[in-house]
Amino acid sequence: MIKSSRRRRRSGIFAPRVTVRPHRPAYIRWLIVLLACTLILALSWGMYDAGHQLVDSDEKETIEEMDHLSRSNARLSEENGELRMKIAALERQLQMDAVAREDIASHVKAMEDENTRLKEELAFFENLGTAIGKIDQQIFINQLKLVRGQLPGEYRYSMLLVQSGKRVKDFKGSLEFIVHFRQNGEKMVTPLASENPSNTFDVNFKFYQRIENGFRMPLDAQVESMQVKVFEKGVAQARLSQSVNLSL
Q1: Which one, of 205, 199, 113, 219, lies nearest residue 163 by Cα?
Q2: Which of 116, 131, 146 is where one domain is finished?
Q3: Predicted confidence (pLDDT) per residue in 183-195, tens digit
Q4: Mean pLDDT across the chain, nearest whole number?
């Protein structure tokens, strides 16, 4: 009884389910796998080619942009070099113009000073000409000046030594210059040094002689004035003496 019941379960509605599948040869399965791999490779190659073309396009644009920037940089460098040369030339020209202006101004100032001096000398000689023949032989100091030099501690002086009178003969003698100055709050004097042991300067003229020279003093010395003494050769006493203050 039991056996027949089991037999009915297996052969009736109680029998296990069976799936029926069609039979496929093995080469079809390999063909499907090959097609799938080929498709994957094709897709991969397409993606690679697209990416490569995109990279090539970007790289080409980058190279073109870099080439453009390089040309622009070279052009700007060349323009900058030309501008630097022009600026340097303009600076040199401005410096030359400034020096030329300074030279012209200095030359004009010197000519103005010379013109003023000549006018003073002309007036002096005109006045002196009216007195010639009326006075005995005399020595004059005219246009005595004392000014600062261009260098620190430098001073310059100038004067016109004139002789007038009846039957004028050559005057032979010497000059002595004495500088009055302050140093360390004290008043001091010093003669100007010369080649002569007596610190005098020889003169020899008939009508007039212009004297221009300079001297140096210590930087802490404050020059106030200068005295000039005129000695005739063979005479110990000064023939003439005159002082002048430092022009400010």
Answers
A1: 205
A2: 131
A3: 998 999 999 987 7
A4: 80
